[in-house]
Amino acid sequence: MKTTTLGTSGLHVSRIAFGTWQLGGDWGHFDEDAAISAIRRARELGVNFFDTAQAYGFGASERLLANALRHELTTARDELVIATKGGLRRTESGMVRDASPDWLRRGVDASLTTLGLDYIDLYQVHWPDPAVPVAETAGALAELVAAGKIRHVGVSNYDVRQIAEFSATLPVETVQPPYHLFRREIEDELLPYCRAHHIGVLVYGPLAHGLLTGTLSTYTIFAEDDWRSGSSAFTSEVYERNLETVQALEDFATERGITISQLAIAWTLANPAIHVAIVGARHASHVQDSLAAAEVSLSDTDLDEINKIMAWATPVAGPSPESV
Question: Do 284 and 37 form a contact (C-beta atoms < 8 A)?
């Protein structure tokens, strides 16, 4: 597994991180034993970077990750980089953003307990909270760093203005934005800003919510509680046209002896501003295919051809906390 240094954090991490959003219980049923096997298989194949969040089942995902890595967290803690996120709160009316100092402090303590850790390697604010002054959020996390509960601080889903405002109180070390072939807006401002300021970038969603796995079709039926069931990106003529683009990408990948998933992940890693791609799996059998993408090199000609294929595609956005 290829590795990299995550910006100014100094964290030495695998270029593919194992993501656990799919293990919180909010994305359908899964087999816990199979999920634990997937996490352990990723570790066996060289992954040392694991990304989770308090809001992924409010403890469910973090607890499962801790169970899967319990032996190594006890015997080889320094070899692992555990990242989690906070700043979302579940209410009777749904998910809300809460990056207040009190909620973040409680969230860090809860994550430490659930993960069974003395410290968190990377703590990220999950979503910007317009109701809380950024300086208060950053100040609270600075205090938690000073207390030794977290070692590095990042943000997720923040734009350039929000990052700059946060950094005025506490330097942002990493950013976690969405990025995939059907969603490229971060190329305009965010990625150049991160390169200029040496901010580590770990992107989520490289498989475009399943669109780039090659497993979806016009006959796919999404569960009622799956946000895709109500999204025009997965239910309309836009979806049908994008599936045609996916087929062209799959043909392109097949000609090069790789899967479309590997192509999609390798494409994200080919961007010099991106350090890490976060990829999840529920089964060990899916892990090896995804991790092999770190070894795929795409030439400038390949990237040009991919851009031509994507020329007529319609962008696909993802859910917000309020929509799930």
Answer: yes
Active site residue 179: no
- In order along its 324 residues, the chain shows pLDDT tens digits of 899 999 999 999 999 999 987 765 555 566 788 889 999 999 999 999 999 999 888 888 899 999 999 999 999 999 999 999 999 998 888 889 999 999 999 999 999 999 999 999 999 999 999 999 999 999 999 999 999 999 999 999 999 999 999 999 999 999 999 999 999 999 999 999 999 999 999 999 999 988 998 888 888 887 777 778 778 788 888 888 999 999 999 999 999 999 999 999 999 999 999 999 999 877 888 888 899 999 999 999 999 999 999 998 999 888 777 666
Catalytic residue among 56, 158, 179, 193: 56
Cβ atoms within 10 Å, residue 163: 22
Strands 174-176 and 150-156: parallel
Place of tokens 């199979």: 34
Q: What is the Cα–Cα distance from 114 to 130, expressed in whole angstroms? A: 28
**How far is 8 from 64, CA to CA, in rounded Å?**
30
